Amino acid sequence: MIERSYEKFFRQNRLPHLWCPGCGNGIVMKAIVQAVEKKGWTQDNTVIVSGIGCSSRASGYMDFDTLHTAHGRAIPFATGIKLANPDLNVVVITGDGDCTAIGGNHFIHGCRRNINLNVILFNNNIYGMTGGQASPTTPLGKKATTAPYGSIDPPFDACNLAIAAGATFVARSTAFHVQHLVNMISSSFDNEGFSFVEALVQCPTSYGRKNKFPTPASMLQWFKDNAAMKPTEGKFTIGVLHSSTAESYDHAYYRLIDEVVG
After folding, report:
1. pTM here?
2. What is the pLDDT of residues 157-197, one digit of tens each?
3. How far is CA 161 from CA 79, 105, 146, 193, 240, in A?
């Protein structure tokens, strides 16, 4: 038997999960708990916060103190937790719609304030849970229930948005590059400030079947063939895209209190 010590971080009575066969969300959920274990965090000092969507259901399967919040509001809920108890490690689980559409302003200002949070974006390029509508990250020309002839909306690059807004750690990986994804999440945990990891995941049900991906494996193969560790024409870059140093918001908050109170 292979020892799977990370399984202690799952609520076994809630499994198996409700995601569709072939969905990549379980891969990212496992990567998060493996990164938590690698970092040496515990269930007593770690909080998982999620919004609404397929990806956000992950918090219900993870055996930590967890908070399943309103649509798009995971980052402000997580901010409150971090400011109330800065010693806690706070991880936000979100999706491309939850984070960059209804939660877009919270995302931008979380980055701008450099709040000491770890935000993991499960990006499946679609609104999976609510019927397969186009999301802010749906690529040009790709089909969705709200774009049956192909999306004409220019998509967000969530990593570029995070960098421009002020996040101090930004990385990208995929559900194919499993160990790389664990390493990116673990590296984000080392950052003091707003950390953002985009995890590209396959959605065979709502995205793949409309866009000529006949199997989940074909979507994973696309990640393999189109990802590059350095900027390469015609491919998307994975790895650490940005790392900088700045005072985190919770540190500035308590520093100000000390200055005012004396």
Report:
1. 0.95
2. 999 999 999 999 999 999 999 999 999 999 999 999 999 99
3. 19, 11, 24, 16, 15
